Amino acid sequence: MRAGKLTGMDRRRVIIEGVRPEVDGGRFPIKRVVGETVAVEADVFTDGHDEVSARLLWRHEKQRNWRTAVMEALGNDRWRASFGVDTLGSYRYTIEGWVDHFKTWRHDLEKRLAARQDVAVDLLIGAGWVAQAAERARGADAASLHGWAERLRAETVSQAERSTLALSEELTLLMARYPDLDHATRYAVELPATVDPVRARFSAWYELFPRSWGSEAGKHGTFRDLGERLPYIKELGFDTIYLPPIHPIGLTRRKGRNNAVTAAASDVGSPWGIGGAEGGHKAVHPELGSVEDFRMFVERAGAEGFDVAIDIAFQVAPDHPYVEESPEWFRQRPDGTVQYAENPPKKYQDIYPFDFETSQWRSLWRELESVFQFWVDQGVRTFRVDNPHTKPFGFWEWCIGRLKARHPELLFLAEAFTRPRRMYRLAKLGFSQSYTYFAWRNEKSELERYLTELTHSDVAEYFRPSFWPNTPDILTEYLQTGGRAAFMVRVALAGTLCSTYGIYGPAFELLEHEPREPGSEEYLHSEKYEVRSWDLERPDSLRGFIGRLNRIRRENPALHENRTLRFHFVDNPQLIAYSKASGTPDVRSLNPYGDVLLPPPLVPPPGSADNNVILTVVNLDPAHTQSGWIEVPLGTFGIDAARPFEVEDLLTGTRYPWRGAWNYVELNPRVSPAHVLRITQASISDAAED
Amino acid sequence: MRAGKLTGMDRRRVIIEGVRPEVDGGRFPIKRVVGETVAVEADVFTDGHDEVSARLLWRHEKQRNWRTAVMEALGNDRWRASFGVDTLGSYRYTIEGWVDHFKTWRHDLEKRLAARQDVAVDLLIGAGWVAQAAERARGADAASLHGWAERLRAETVSQAERSTLALSEELTLLMARYPDLDHATRYAVELPATVDPVRARFSAWYELFPRSWGSEAGKHGTFRDLGERLPYIKELGFDTIYLPPIHPIGLTRRKGRNNAVTAAASDVGSPWGIGGAEGGHKAVHPELGSVEDFRMFVERAGAEGFDVAIDIAFQVAPDHPYVEESPEWFRQRPDGTVQYAENPPKKYQDIYPFDFETSQWRSLWRELESVFQFWVDQGVRTFRVDNPHTKPFGFWEWCIGRLKARHPELLFLAEAFTRPRRMYRLAKLGFSQSYTYFAWRNEKSELERYLTELTHSDVAEYFRPSFWPNTPDILTEYLQTGGRAAFMVRVALAGTLCSTYGIYGPAFELLEHEPREPGSEEYLHSEKYEVRSWDLERPDSLRGFIGRLNRIRRENPALHENRTLRFHFVDNPQLIAYSKASGTPDVRSLNPYGDVLLPPPLVPPPGSADNNVILTVVNLDPAHTQSGWIEVPLGTFGIDAARPFEVEDLLTGTRYPWRGAWNYVELNPRVSPAHVLRITQASISDAAED
Fold first, then answer.
1. Between A and B, how many CB-CB pairs are < 8 A?
2. pLDDT tens digits for B179-208?
3. How much is the pTM?
4. Residues A319, B188: Cα–Cα separation, whole Å
5. pLDDT tens digit string along A13-35?
6. Is B421's CB within 8 Å of A45's CB?
7. The complex's ipTM?
8. Which of B49, B77, B183 sits opposite A421 (nearest CB)?
9. Number of C-alpha atoms within 13 angstroms, CB side, residue A604?
């Protein structure tokens, strides 16, 4: 119940509710990248017949003053305005609404005049509103408004003449500058928005084990060696090179090849078995080079346009210096040993997890934050975080929050393959990108359902998916059994469904598909436990296909974002079809009861410079040619149904003349299992006019 | 960003989110009635492999201590528990979750034993958890837990034996009594629930103008006269008698018959033109009787089982004492007159609205609250509030909040026929029931869509719909043109779709259908402006049909609530079919992303005393016989598909043997446009066994 005492708050007649976007009542920020707009909607209304006005307020955290934009009424009490974000870091936005007496009066006057009523008294009332605004105004505007008030009151002038003045645009604009905000309602929450670099939304990752990139087969690779191989990765078209942990690898209980419980003397161990005599999370594995070598590699890659991402895995090998220096960060077992990692009945005695319930949790948290800072100081801007869901959620919010406050350009990719709530929570807490279930979504219906959740529910406000067809831990059954076409299908899906994606190579482009044992998703001869040597020049390599795919991605802005994604009907369950369009993906109307009301994406007219519509069709069956009829939403794409239009397969360069909504597609997986079609109409009509 | 300082809060590893039911983050209460249960769901999870436990906490506002219930895991991090509400007033509920080390340990032990591992150290670890619980326990439990810890540690006893002890139910239950809540997470909000009398959910209203119920035709009726006619209303089966304003009616600018601008001397005026020399909102119109007569009528009706609702319309006639006593509550026009009601270009010079923006708003609010209190003191418990959407929302929250704090049994029906957001907001602020758009929803598809929003979205948590086929202001085109069958259709829909409904009579049962002019929804010779005399004995009266309908409603618990409503397929767009079932309507699973996941209603087995399934089929076409095949969801209703079952039309008493999912229905509107079918299977099988 409300308290009995009446305060000024109670005089606020305007209600603001149903604000979108908003994550958990403003507890967490929405995410955007530099250059995007934030379209904000809300229900704004009051009692009675009075009209309301509303405005959007926003500011960057470093700015003191709010900027404002007038909100536009969409009907049914829904209002909208947008703001652009051009600076990295944190923004706040909120909404103000007020009863607008002058606007009400002005509209009523129009109705009275239309009904030919006497408006003598009404003009006096209007003059009163203008005179009140004059009191709020200053300088010339104040004098001007006083003048307007006088003119509306001038009984020597006819009602008709004064009414014309009253309805003039000049007065309307002047009055709008001095609203009566005395009893305005400010939405109770200042909603946060995190603005990241563009690569948070659009990037293509290439994961590799540097030790396999030595100057000759079998020789342990170094950062210098890897620097020499950048042209290969450049040709593949990736922009982010992601390295598994680069730290010294423990010796005690080191795992051998194929995860053998005991390692041979020559075995190099797993990069995730972090820490040894040479150091821990702030050191570089000596065989890869020095910290200086690493810094030079980051610089050299940066000069070539690459971002280098490193893996941060908060766990230690028994040899890690932390074990001796800070035993209080680990749980002791009753027999005096240190608690190793377990997932009963499985035991991972080569790994010690941190005990986040330790009484010394504060020093632990601070040390772990300093690990990130150390690598930031070496030039790293992007971190892939290993198993973040096995560390407390509160730690990530604190740690990422502090790091991003100092370095808003940092990105964090959450490697959490766990239940949906936990994955979404990590994204809310600050992770910039997230791994997904994509690797295991093979059927058309499951892809459609999953992508709709990711791109057209509130999840899209805070969770940026990254699609990976494979990782060093994930060799899916589809890839194991589907042959070369299966690899093409999966990378084509990843790269066109999701603006951020990645592969683990060269295993991927070289079609590595043997599991360690039947039923396992582990690779046979996994690079996790040994140095591999890859024949990058193999003729069956997918390097050409992937290079084309990445070039198409770069050249077509439609593929730089996910919110315009929509699926189209094909009359064959093995064919999936979907489109993305450049435009204004943020303009979408959500009603406050949770439904997503999707307006068609606003596509610039075909032929205009901004128009970019990419329609992808993929044959999900890697074994057989599949064909079908696809329904093209002509209206949504702005295509004139009466005229032919052209689709060009950007993968092959082939052009097809299409006409009308229904068109035939046929995909032979042995040739190319996907069409990535750019739609144009103008070019055909131009040609027809010749 | 999070502040840098680390506090104990940061150690809380459990996350609680996605709590349902919850209205606007707990800003507004959910609504229930005495005897219902509140099923609460939430996502509760933590990092890593540890298991969590959760409990629901609740208390009545008058209780100091929380009561608790263990929450049950539904899978995928979703948890549920329920509590019953047996006391009027306000409840609070919230959720606690914690990392349950003993539960984790116990499950891990099971896995280790299954894998035949050595568990010597594990038993010592478990003994540690038990010993810690012993420290939290008191008295006998503490001693007992210490004993258990000792036994788990006893190395002289075999691991197998100690493991059996460790997994015993006795220890599990004992440990569950002493959870480690040191770092438990309490959900940030204590969510409110308003508990109303049962009639807030289930009631049947009859609106009448007492002045037309005089002892002889043409004579102004009194409360005494009305008291004599209670048997008629009783026979109709209504439980709430609702009276338009009962106050003195103003003379100045009084409206004449059919809303004529000038009244004849004999014209009685509109009851909504409140206030005159005889008094205002705390007085009774002298021709109806005295305040004492009114109080006696309320008592007499109460003795007959009726609740008497009165209309509170916060507006005044120019003669109302307030105008002279408190001119500051009204807006003055520049010409010195009082601002009358307007909806430009329409003017209502016989009505003055209150100026809620007056500087004397506090005294105005207090006076208006005192009007309700005055009538509460005369025995009124139910108020129909006229046009609440033309008074500030904040006023209603304050006013209803204060009144319900003193008198939690009060009900308020909002007469707001306005835009959806405003209607829903009034319900959130405290109105117990609300008028709806039902009167204008005629087509099957629009009825299905509207009812789904009202009963299966979050709206159902706070907005209780009341369905009215007519009101003194609303004579729909359907009723004007559809004949007697149209009235039967609309009252059957109202009474079976919605647990609370009402009619304005005797206009309704006597089929009054002439509009004041074509295209108008106003009645010709409206009782709003004149005394009518009704021939209640007319042979075409619907009194018998309505009486049967209300008896069916009373006798069938399925019709006492709305949340089990679901629509069924009929292959004829003129036939609408839907069912309600008694059971546990509150058990529904909502995922946090807004979808409603509807489990089938849990229906007690057919033939059991609690089983009550009502399937209604209505012919929406009042002019023609319509027939079709209806699909009966046998599984949902617990009907054995292999056996026949019986449906009994409770309106006619006819029984039909049905079998299988698809059954034929045919409705002749001249006979009866609706089936209200009770489904039973047991009776048929019993008969078959004879």
1. 189
2. 999 999 999 999 999 999 999 999 999 999
3. 0.94
4. 42
5. 999 999 999 999 999 999 999 99
6. yes
7. 0.93
8. B77
9. 12
